[in-house]
Write a structure and sequence with these properties.
With 350 residues, this protein is an alpha+beta fold. The chain contains eight helices and 13 strands. Belongs to the Rieske iron-sulfur protein family. It is a multi-pass membrane protein.
Amino acid sequence: MSTQEIPEENLPAGQDTAHGAVKVADDPFADPGLPPHKPRIQDIDERAARRSERAVAFMFVLSMLATVGFIASYVIFPVDKIVYIWPFGRVSALNFALGWTLGLALFFIGAGAVHWARTLMSDVEVADERHPMEASPEVKAKVMADFAAGAAESGFGRRKLIRNTMFGALALVPLSGVMLLRDMGPLPEKKLRTTKWARGKQLINMNTHEPLRPEDVAVGSLTFAMPEGMSEHDHDFQVEIAKAALMIVRIQPEDIKDKRELEWSHEGVVAFSKICTHVGCPISLYEQQTHHVLCPCHQSTFDLSDGARVIFGPAGHALPQLRIGVNDKGFLEALGDFDEPVGPAFWERG
């Protein structure tokens, strides 16, 4: 479409179409300027400014209380406690409390900062010209002056209530991250050094769930046992059986090479930890002629006739032995706990 076909009333002002030529206006994109600044009620009423200051401080205090609640949740709620909360259903009480308290702590810091900026900090819009990437000394001086003016306008130095409560909220929030380090695992205390075995606890067959007698263990057989009183329905069964799992074999007493192993056995019935000392796999392969047991994961091999010492593979330590005897009813029983921690890498952990 040529310019002659454009209706004259639709052409921009300042254009001449007498000879079919378009003349561009001198400044087609004139600077519209900034609208006049309208003061807020906080700018003209100190009582309103005080109310906003107290509101911001209240939000920061709520953030501090939420952080304290986050830390307290670790102490109050057990890790395995499940509660019903509508409409979420059955949830972990600890996770629910941690999520809400941490979320509120961060929310109130953000809400307080936004309310502070919208009601108390200066809202005057300032237009500035573009400048080269490299700042000149005059620009640097101007930036520092603007920063000082902004700090003064924010009331950061004058409104001590906001400043102090903000510092309190920001100082407490990082404690939530410190408490989250607990999720790397519960403090082991002495749990790695002890198992459910204790003096007088009978050896229970893992398959039949019946107490074992010496005659139940035949020469060349491999039997697995757990401590009396444990049940597969216990909430901590998997944790405890991972330390207390026991394998029992019967060896002719004259074939036992290790003196202590013979003393801790009963008529050739010996009991060793089932947990490999390499990475904790359950040992289940037994060769009756050599009395060797093999870990199926990485082929660590232990000699059960010689204190369960390592004869092949990456395991670095012998299997711990459990001292056993017979009670007055003729059942095999433990005469104490393992004399050393079971499982892998304990010595490296200290």
